[in-house]
Write a structure and sequence with these properties.
alpha+beta, 4-stranded antiparallel sheet, 3-stranded antiparallel sheet, 16 strands
């Protein structure tokens, strides 16, 4: 055993008794919600990180353990990063000793209350685990088309038509191709005009038209359609849905995926306490982007790295560690000119085709995303995903109207789950405070009634003093034993008898 509990096994023992162990170093001395003393029974070996204590006078060891767990240790420990309770200050900890029968009544009452509290805490923890599973179930059901009625079902019921996701995707791809060709042609036209003017040649409106037509034809030949996903290993989708990829869903005329700047471009030494937020993987939480774990850069650094500034509606995707964690950039984050670091990828999706809120729900809830990440990391010790792999990631695309209904229902259900989670956390904290109060009341004499017929504690202390003197070991004289000679375990146990309380 060590400072806070069992740390291993050994083929020998120092003690075969019921003992109270009090942490010497490494125990949570300043955390009132965690115990610093605990009881052990039977054969054991205790390392040098715990004090070994035993009550005399037939006093219950549990009484000592509970009292030590409500002591304020600030006046007894030393050190900064790792607090230590040395034996000398440990021996000066004041203890309140009631009559022996009252000690037993106090222990019985404490254990009765704490048993019920422990059961309540266990129930609350089980609720929290169930809420976590519930959230995952909501997201999984949503992205599989089972949370709300599909557009196909509603259209049949209402006798109307609707645009399936496949038709929506075709329109987005046509628009994307058109914008790419126009952008390429315009860049070529501007380059031709600049070259002509530098050569002193006139440039007319007719030259504009002629050059654009020529460059459009060239750009059309160079344009590459984004590849569709292979659906061989993908599950069937509800009617009106289709499989697509992040590449196909990219915003027309924009770079779809952008990885944050490398360390050489954004050095940690350049970070400042306040300034422009630099978003990290830690900023991506289940409840949105949190700046608590963001770093900060100066305005000058942000201007140099303006390419990596996020926009309202961008999706951030982790590229290593917890792959698949995603977050939506909202107005307040974008308004601060926030940057992404090297561990994040910025995904810019076509808002007409897919809602960013639905995409994040899909990433968090779809088993196909999990399977895809596993497949690209097969045989690797550390998960990771690059730009090309993210572009090829398959996405289940519903009609836009259905996406809006899905995200609204997901928000409603997860809000209810969040409120229940907050309540259970609050009640868990109340149980912790009540546990501390029970121990406080116990050692203020307020938990059980006093019996005037009990033997006074002063008589008990005199008897303990006599018992202690009778078992006190005489001081051993120094001998010339060789350094490598060690006392047998029975002798070492006797030597530790001086630490008994």
């Amino acid at each position: 055993y060590g400072a806070t509990g069992q740390v291993g096994w050994i083929d020998d023992y120092l003690f075969d008794d019921e003992l109270v162990l009090l942490g010497e170093d490494g125990a949570p001395f300043l955390d009132p919600g965690k115990p610093v003393a605990y009881m052990i029974r039977g054969k054991s070996w205790v390392n040098n990180h715990a004090h070994v204590l035993r009550m005399l006078g037939m006093c219950p060891n549990a009484f000592l353990m509970y009292q030590l767990n409500q002591v304020d240790y600030r006046h007894f420990v030393s050190g900064t990063t790792r607090l230590k309770l040395s034996q000398r200050p440990m021996r000066t900890i004041p203890l309140l000793i009631p009559p022996l029968p009252e000690q037993h009544r106090i222990v019985e009452a404490i254990e009765s209350y704490l048993t019920r509290l422990d059961a309540a805490v266990a129930l609350l923890e089980r609720v929290q685990r169930n809420l976590k599973r519930y959230r995952a179930s909501v997201l999984k059901t949503a992205v599989e088309g089972r949370l709300v009625p599909t557009e196909a079902e509603l259209a049949k019921k209402e006798g109307r038509t609707y645009e399936p996701a496949s038709e929506l995707l075709k329109r987005i791809l046509i628009e994307r191709r058109k914008k790419w060709i126009e952008n390429a042609a315009e860049k070529a036209r501007a380059k031709a005009e600049k070259k002509a003017r530098e050569a002193g040649k006139p440039w007319t409106h007719a030259d504009d038209i002629k050059t654009l037509e020529k460059e459009r034809a060239k750009a059309a030949k160079r344009y590459k359609e984004p590849a569709a996903p292979s659906t061989a290993d993908l599950p069937d989708l509800p009617e009106g849905w289709c499989w697509t990829t992040c590449d196909q869903l990219g915003e027309p005329g924009e770079q779809v995926v952008l990885t944050g700047p490398f360390g050489s471009a954004l050095k940690s030494s350049e970070f400042v306490p306040h300034g422009v937020p630099v978003l990290t993987i830690g900023c991506l939480t289940d409840h949105g982007i949190d700046l608590e774990k963001a770093n900060y850069a100066t305005e000058d650094v942000a201007r140099e790295l303006s390419r990596y500034v996020v926009r309202d509606g961008d999706v951030l995707f982790s590229r290593m560690a917890t792959v698949g964690r995603a977050g939506l950039v909202e107005k307040q984050i974008a308004a601060r000119g926030s940057l992404i670091n090297y561990h994040l990828m910025r995904l810019r999706l076509a808002g007409k085709a897919i809602r960013a809120q639905y995409f994040i729900a899909f990433v968090r809830g779809s088993t196909s995303v999990v399977n895809y990440v596993r497949s690209i990391n097969h045989g690797m010790t550390r998960n990771g995903i690059n730009t090309k792999q993210l572009l090829a990631m398959p996405v289940a695309l519903p009609p836009v109207a259905e996406q809006d209904k899905i995200t609204a229902e997901v928000d409603r259900l997860l809000s209810l789950a969040g409120a229940m989670s907050t309540t259970t956390k609050s009640n868990t904290y109340r149980c912790l405070k009540l546990r501390q109060s029970i121990l406080k009341w116990a050692f203020e004499g307020k938990l059980v009634e006093q019996d005037p017929n009990d033997e006074p504690a002063s008589v008990l202390l005199e008897r303990i003093k006599a018992e202690r003197e009778s078992v006190q070991q005489p001081k051993r004289r120094r001998t010339n034993k060789k350094k490598d000679e060690q006392p047998k375990h029975d002798e070492r146990r006797d030597l530790l008898g001086g630490s008994d309380t």
